[in-house]
């Protein structure tokens, strides 16, 4: 049975109104966490997102910087994960905080929605508001040329009990991952739902398609066994609502 481990690499100070428009006043300060996820069953590990390189951590983690590549290696060792044996990495979407440390997994195939790659290699990439968040697309293309990108066209069974579900909204190819654990069905939302408050208030912050982003909430609710098992992508409260077997790691599914 799967256990899910979320590794946080640090925090960023934000204006909370950006993620919760019309709910909180502009200038309200808050913090967000940056997570990557390890789905573990015995010796098999499937990742959701790659984690961040040192460069990305230094840019993103303005409030707390736990570390980049070396830090991830230490956390993997504590969790008894051999990163070189990882074969499957599901990419929630191609923003740099979710896809930059791909070089850690030399034997992995990266599962990405085709719509995501088309969007970020198409005309939209010329706009700063799109490009500033995007992963390094030359690296994505290089991996594709090596046959290490698995193009998804909608929902996909990744492994028994693990599915990638395209929801769009935040980006055209945003996908969530459902995992069947001992405590039923968990949904790892990444940026489809940033925080518990986004879900509770029914509002989204950053999106390319507002209606699709809001409809994603309804879809995600049908995928989880309970609201408590909908795991937002950037909420520090995740670390408090589930056990922390290792400092900087949250465990779901025990």
Description:
- The strands form two sheets. Strands 1, 2, 3, 4, 5, 6, 7 and 13 form an eight-stranded mixed sheet that branches. The chain has a five-stranded mixed sheet with strand order 8-9-10-11-12, with helices on one face.
- With 254 residues, the protein is α/β, with parallel strands linked by helices.
- Strand 9 (162-166) and strand 10 (175-181) form a beta hairpin.
- It is 24% helix and 28% strand.
- The chain starts with a strand and ends with a strand.
- The longest helix has 14 residues, at 210-223.
What's the short story on this structure?
The chain has 254 residues and is of the alpha/beta class.
Write the layout of secondary structure elements.
Blueprint: E1 3-15, E2 29-41, E3 44-48, H1 54-60, E4 64-65, H2 69-78, E5 88-90, E6 109-113, H3 114-120, H4 128-131, H5 137-145, E7 149-152, E8 156-159, E9 162-166, E10 175-181, E11 184-188, H6 196-201, H7 210-223, E12 230-231, H8 238-241, E13 249-252
Parallel strand pairs: 3-5, 5-6, 6-7, 11-12
Antiparallel strand pairs: 1-2, 1-4, 1-13, 2-3, 8-9, 9-10, 10-11
Helix content: 10-25%
Spans of 5+ residues with little confidence (pLDDT < 50)?
none
Shape descriptor reads globular
Total helix count? 8
Which terms would index this structure?
single chain; 254 residues; alpha/beta; Metallo-beta-lactamase, Chain A; eight-stranded mixed β-sheet; five-stranded mixed β-sheet; 13 strands; globular
